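RECORD TYPE: inverse folding
INPUT: structure tokens
STRUCTURE:
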């Protein structure tokens, strides 16, 4: 089976705790598309494709748990209702996908409860399915969404690197796996496991689409569906697994933060009428204006926290720092989401989280200064 080969071949897992050689082992999977909206079509397409691979290789649905908004297949923008594809001219990957947690149930709290096997917390929510894996089992987690230094997104909230790794440690302490493989598709996803965040010798192998300071990439722009169908990292591992698939490997890749702009540029160029072109041009101008507005708000926040120290503000807005002060960082991101822009809902606001991380990691700033500046800036 795919997961058996993948897990056993990872030499990094050789230190996993020994188990009885005749003990029965099972494979479990948790698949998460953390975004919402048709412009993020590719995230749900990636997760649906991952489900098809696992299902094809014999993992039963009762041991595959899927989180996704499920707002793409029947979207008014989708010209092929009820069908999702993950590559140009591809086959439907949506059919048969379990809808365990959709819509408002796609939250970091539910994700944490599911992967720690908290049945009581999930009673009455979605399918109620949770991981029920044991010490001899193999667990695969595939997370696809937007990211920022030390964070990944859900449709209306975020999950920090500290929260994620504390959860993985809890799973290890509960003996929920022999080996766990984590595939993460998100910008700056390397920051989620960087340094000492992921404890060694737990039998966990984590691989990410990007390092701690770079973007992930989308690909396969579809002129019919008018959106990108997949993400480069996800496409590569899945097309390698699909033995019979033609491997195109995404020659048209676009960095994730630029996907909305690329979609709108393509739609404007492909417009069939002058009116459609004008409408798309307005949407593009609004997107650029929104990005500039959000960047301007963050600059004001940094200016306020630095007491208008121009050199310090410039430093904060141009550097990239490894997140470690999560007490400050989580509080700052929560405050920014509450008072300014919800980073789980506004992708371009998520791109500004790096500045909050930089302030929290800089000796010139106290947490209260940052929180006060956020509140004052966005209140005004």
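DESIGNED SEQUENCE:
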């Amino acid at each position: 089976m795919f997961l058996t080969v993948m897990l056993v071949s990872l030499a990094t897992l050789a230190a996993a705790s020994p188990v009885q050689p005749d003990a029965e082992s099972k494979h479990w999977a948790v698949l998460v598309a953390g975004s919402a909206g048709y412009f993020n079509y590719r995230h749900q397409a990636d997760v649906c494709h991952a489900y098809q691979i696992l299902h094809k290789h014999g993992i039963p649905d009762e041991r595959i748990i899927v989180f996704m908004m499920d707002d793409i297949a029947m979207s008014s923008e989708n010209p092929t209702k009820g069908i999702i594809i993950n590559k140009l001219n591809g086959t439907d990957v949506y059919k048969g996908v379990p809808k365990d947690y959709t819509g408002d149930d796609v939250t970091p709290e539910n994700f944490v409860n599911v992967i720690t096997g908290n049945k009581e917390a999930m009673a009455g929510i979605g399918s109620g399915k949770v991981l029920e894996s044991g010490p001899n089992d193999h667990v695969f987690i595939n997370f696809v969404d937007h990211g920022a230094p030390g964070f990944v997104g859900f449709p209306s909230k975020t999950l920090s690197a500290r929260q994620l790794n504390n959860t993985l440690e809890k799973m290890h302490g509960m003996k929920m796996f022999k080996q766990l493989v984590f595939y993460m598709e998100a910008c700056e996803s390397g920051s989620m496991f960087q340094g000492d965040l992921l404890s060694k010798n737990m039998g966990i192998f984590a691989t990410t689409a990007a390092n701690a300071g770079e973007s992930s990439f989308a690909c396969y722009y579809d002129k019919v569906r008018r959106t990108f169908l997949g993400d480069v990292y996800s496409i590569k591992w899945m097309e390698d697994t699909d033995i019979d698939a033609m491997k195109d490997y995404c020659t048209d890749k676009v960095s994730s933060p630029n996907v909305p702009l690329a979609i709108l540029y393509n739609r404007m160029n492909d417009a069939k009428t002058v009116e459609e072109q004008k409408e798309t041009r307005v949407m593009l101008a609004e997107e650029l204006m929104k990005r500039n507005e959000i960047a301007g708000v963050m600059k004001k926040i940094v200016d306020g926290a630095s007491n208008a120290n121009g050199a310090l503000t410039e430093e904060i807005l141009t550097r990239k720092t490894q997140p470690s002060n999560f007490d400050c960082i989580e509080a700052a991101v929560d405050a920014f989401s509450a008072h300014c822009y919800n980073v789980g809902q506004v992708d371009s606001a998520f791109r500004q989280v790096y500045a909050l991380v930089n302030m929290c990691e800089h000796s010139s700033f106290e947490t209260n200064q940052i929180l006060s500046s956020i509140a004052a800036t966005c209140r005004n």
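NOTES: Residues 27 and 59 are 7 Å apart (CA to CA).
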